[in-house]
Design a protein that fits this description.
CATH architecture of the largest domain: 2-Layer Sandwich
Structural class: alpha+beta
Largest sheet: 4 strands, antiparallel
CATH topology of the largest domain: Alpha-Beta Plaits
Radius of gyration: 21 Å
Distance between the termini: 40 Å
Number of helices: 5
Helix content: 25-40%
Number of strands: 4
Order of helices and strands: HHEHEEHEH
């Protein structure tokens, strides 16, 4: 199997209205990307992830971004309590204080799309949450531990 990414490329021809192509070229230039292809690939990946979110049982990885008003710890406590039902899905979280008594929290998540959506729905119910957004990808984190691996290693070490 070759590791050359160019060897795995497929060519595609697309017809677009002239105005849409002009807008695409402007976006590529503003973002200083090397080619239209890179921008189109990013747009396709985004749409595929959105499509996967709606498919039952699809396992996704991503990030939940929350903006909320801090209310003497009540909101953070309510958010932590809501996350408690999603321990398998929430991999890590990071919190920073913003101006005007606001906070930003980012949760790294992975799991079935229904569970990730349910997590967002629970977080959205917390009074004080002003914005919430889930961004996903179909690429997954590699498994950290195989099922039963720790038990087997323990048994071998005890011998």
């Amino acid at each position: 199997m070759t590791s050359d990414p160019l060897a795995q490329l497929a060519r595609l021809s697309v017809s677009l209205p002239a105005e849409l192509l002009s807008q695409l070229d402007a976006m590529v230039a503003e973002r200083e990307l090397p080619s239209r292809s890179q921008m189109i690939a990013e747009l396709i990946r985004h749409e595929l992830a959105l499509h996967s979110e709606g498919q039952e049982g699809a396992v996704l990885a991503g990030a939940v971004t929350l903006i909320y008003r801090a209310d003497r710890g009540r909101v953070r406590q309510a958010l932590a309590q809501a996350q408690g039902s999603f321990v398998k899905e929430v991999i890590s979280s990071q919190h920073v204080f913003l101006e005007e008594d606001q906070s930003l929290e980012v949760l790294l998540v992975q799991g079935p799309s229904e569970r990730l959506q349910a997590l967002c729905d629970e977080l959205r119910k917390v009074r004080g949450v002003q914005q919430i957004k889930l961004v996903t990808t179909t690429a997954l984190l590699p498994p950290l531990h195989a099922h039963g691996e720790a038990e087997e290693a323990g048994k071998r070490g005890a011998r």
